[in-house]
């Protein structure tokens, strides 16, 4: 699952014991879905800031639409459950919009892709005043811990970190057509064994920099390999990452010192200039 839900065995029981119930239209839809045993994950960046950063109440929301995520394996059963209700519904393979009394619950469908999930761009026609936080473009969602809110939806346990990841969540596909041409016409094929050996430390670097909230990007030959070969440049064994100098601090060096997966091999140049990791 994308969201690892709380292991508290009393949580589901507690959810039925909340004394306060919102009178909002949003809650009416959310409660129906929860009672139908669908787990909604709040990913709407505006609402997350409203509830957890600014500490405002759910009933103070002045929005026409709220976005939640739902796993793709739940979609078929969800569509069946909505056939006999009085909601207005728009459905595609990637997004579901449930409208009731001029309020809309947007369900962005999570599609498993490698070690994370993708939310695809919305293609359904919406009114011009609706701006989606997910569905505006293809975005990636990583695994995270979650908690159950009193209004019967899940939310990221570390909201501030989730919002930081959102800023860099746009997903870009490599050039598959060009990669096929490199293989078929120029016989530049991926060494799968070497690729797998390189991917593990690269994932560890990306995980560390995300955890430390450092902006980074593929650079040099690694960037060219991603775009032109959908992997690494054949016959190469290294990968380059770029990082803003002003974001560098000792937390990066300390993370990789003695790291069992990707360890700090050497530091070159100026104090904050270049780290070599193995």
UniProtKB/TrEMBL annotation:
Q: Which GO terms describe its biological process?
A: glycoprotein metabolic process
Please give one Pfam family short name.
Answer: LicD
Question: Where located?
Answer: Membrane
One cellular component term (GO) for this entry is:
membrane
What keywords is this UniProt entry annotated with? Answer: Membrane, Transmembrane, Transmembrane helix
Pinpoint the LicD/FKTN/FKRP nucleotidyltransferase domain residues.
Answer: 215-250
How is the protein disposed in the membrane? Answer: Single-pass membrane protein
Predominant location: membrane
Q: What is this protein called?
A: LicD/FKTN/FKRP nucleotidyltransferase domain-containing protein
